[in-house]
Specification:
3 helices, four-stranded antiparallel β-sheet, alpha+beta, five-stranded antiparallel β-sheet
């Protein structure tokens, strides 16, 4: 990743992919962002530029962040014997739909860490105890098989009090 100040414009961040393609993001001083793809035959020439709204930039970051995070978790799973990752849905019937994560006492009760929540097209990394679950959320958790099974039971059918 290379950062270049563009006087009077803003900042450009460039990345050269493993295949040698160069792309970048220009963050203008006025808040506008442009996704830029450079010509493969002339790395100083722009082949395409796409202006992104704030919502589009956030959605793209979420998409890229989600795949990166899940890929890293998969790598972690392979490296740590006995440590697994699992995605646990918050169903409409869950006693924790509409309740904060902290009320589950998941880490204390299971030894499992909730590392992210997937909500529609969003990824919420490292949710805090006051994060409120919604039906349809998918919890990304890391722990032992036993702990993950306990977490699944808690989120699916166990009452809020334990």
């Amino acid at each position: 990743m290379e950062q270049t100040t563009l006087p009077g414009i803003g900042v450009r961040h460039d990345l050269v992919t493993e295949t040698g393609r160069r792309l970048g993001v220009v963050s203008h001083r006025n808040g506008r962002r442009d996704l830029v793809l450079y010509d493969p035959d002339d790395p100083d020439s722009c082949a395409a530029s796409i202006a992104l709204t704030d919502d589009e930039a956030a959605a793209l970051a979420d998409i890229l962040g989600a795949s990166l995070m899940l890929g890293q978790l998969a790598d972690l799973r392979q490296q740590a014997a006995g440590l697994l990752t699992e995605q646990v849905p918050i169903t409409p019937g869950s006693p924790y739909a509409g309740r904060p994560l902290g009320h589950t006492r998941a880490r204390t009760r299971t030894g499992v860490s909730i590392v992210a929540v997937l909500r529609e097209s969003q990824v919420i990394p490292s949710p805090k105890p006051d994060f409120v679950f919604e039906a349809g959320d998918v919890v990304v958790a890391v722990g032992t098989r036993n702990g993950l099974d306990k977490l699944t039971a808690i989120l699916a059918s166990d009452g809020p009090g334990g």
